[in-house]
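To close the section, here is one more complete example, presented without commentary so you can practise reading it yourself. The ligand is coenzyme A.
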Amino acid sequence: MNGMTDLAFRPYEPRDQRRCVAMFDANTPEFFSPNERVDYLAYLDGGAAGYRVCEEKGRVVGAFGLSQAAAQTRELNWILIDPGTQGQGIGSRMLERVVEDCRGSDTTILRIAASHRSAPFFERFGATVVRTTENGWGPGMHRVDMRLDIGPQAEV
Ligand SMILES: CC(C)(COP(=O)(O)OP(=O)(O)OC[C@H]1O[C@@H](n2cnc3c(N)ncnc32)[C@H](O)[C@@H]1OP(=O)(O)O)[C@@H](O)C(=O)NCCC(=O)NCCS
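Output:
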């Protein structure tokens, strides 16, 4: 991880859809099941409230959604990074950002709908497995529901 990349976060706009879908496709089938594409499109078409994109030198390299799920509970959805820029610390920066946002509100629990492929990443930040659903996302793609308790201090 290096903290040197200059990253900017901003709200998702309809003009980002093509790029986001391209990043989804580039992460399929390694991280996403092909059948999830229709759900992602519906999410974006539906306005994607709380979705944010991450730009590096003006280019969108990732996105993530943060929404209110219940009282004091937020949910992280559709976090994805361009495979060409994975492993450079961008996902970590995003997650730090998400945790900061949660701490700045009354959030105590962050729910993460992950897969068996991405769960190890979230575990590094202290997220724990709540439930595993075999083939929950599609054939061979297991759903791993996780939670990250938001404490008052940095836990990374
Ligand atoms: C999961 C994801 C967001 C991680 O983002 P990233 O920018 O690649 O992560 P970072 O570079 O910050 O990685 C931080 C550390 O976690 C590790 N890591 C990253 N992804 C991992 C994974 N899937 N499994 C295990 N470890 C992982 C990295 O190797 C790195 O380790 P290091 O610090 O020892 O070098 C990214 O790989 C991604 O977009 N995946 C496809 C979409 C996806 O699965 N989304 C989640 C489900 S909705």
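Once you have examined the tokens, check your reading against these statements. Residues 1, 27, 31, 78-81, 86-92, 114-115, 117-118, 120-121, 124 surround coenzyme A (CB under 6 Å). Residues 51 and 65 are 4 Å apart (CA to CA).
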